[in-house]
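Quick note —
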Amino acid sequence: MAFYSYTAVNSDGTLIKGAMEGSDIETVRDTITSFGLYVITLRKLSHYNSYIRKLVLTRSVRRPEIIEFARNLSVMLKAGIPILKALSDIADGLENKYLQQTINRMRRKIEFGSSFSEAAACFNVFPDIFIRLSRVGEETGNLERSFSDLATHLEKMEDLSSSIKRALIYPAFAIVSTIGALLFWLVYVLPKVMEIFRNMGLALPLPTRILLHMSDFCRSYWYLLLITPVALLIFIKLLRRKEKIRYYMDLLTIRLPVIKHIAYNRLLALFTEQIRILTVAGITIDKSLETISGVISNEVFRNSIGRIREEIALGSRISDAIGKEKVFPTLVTRMIDVGESSGNLDKQFAHLSEHYLKKLDGVSQKIGTMIEPIVIGVIGSLFALIIMGLLLPIYDLVAKIGTL
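Predicted structure written out below.
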């Protein structure tokens, strides 16, 4: 669908400008008119402008806003308010104009005969699991519970995301501050000191010459310091397009020291929480695994989930299929086995989800302590080189003065 920019007038005569996504110009015109506006101008934006606008607007809708939307829908439907009235009331109270516009367009589609899940699927705002669970709620006639479960699930995913961000704050701050201090020394301080040494005709030792070359490089090719990180990110993204390279890169992330504690526990928490919410909703294990494989970003886990699906399709028990995959720890296999035997598989998935979410939260709090020795070692080595480079020539000068 493309975006259309419009100019319209409301009942008070106020001029309103905006943009709306739609399949064709007539559909957009009818939608704008249904909001009580009189359309003055309406034109289709270019493909490039539509793509950029969709990318920006879609990302402007944050997960907490989707959580609040699902929670409010659950409460209002439970209170007996019709879904069209509920959507209208929720949209009126929103500050995010794009989400407000999206909900109003969903309401319009439902008025024309679409189900809620069909209307939601027309927009990129809502995650796949939102659409799947709302469809299950429509089929079971318990839509308010589906929205409640969905809000709880998305809150856990938000907590998971927050734990990872907390874990990365200290390393990111340490790396940026260290690089900044080093560049300041190399670009501003060392050149002035080195100029004094040169004027005095001192024979510069090896550490000092290394610093001198580093300083000259930073001042002469400073633009490479800006381009290199961007070029490296682009290069990695291009490499990840190849499945085999992507597999080994993902394997590396769950095996590297320190990093594996975050990446591996995150993947296990995501897997167990996703399969829990899908199982509770009544979705078959085969469909659940298919959905999860689309959510999991790690190629190693995705391949394992694909093999688990094949084993289950051939008649294997879930625990037996998961037990064959080394990427999953014994705890997961053992608890799923108990759940299959007792008929409480959803509760076991809930226990596993809570366990790995707590474990990841614990890792995020301890990551500073874990990475601190590495950061101190790197910083200490860099500044030891700087101090040696500065003091050795001074020591030589003092020694020469002492022999006079």
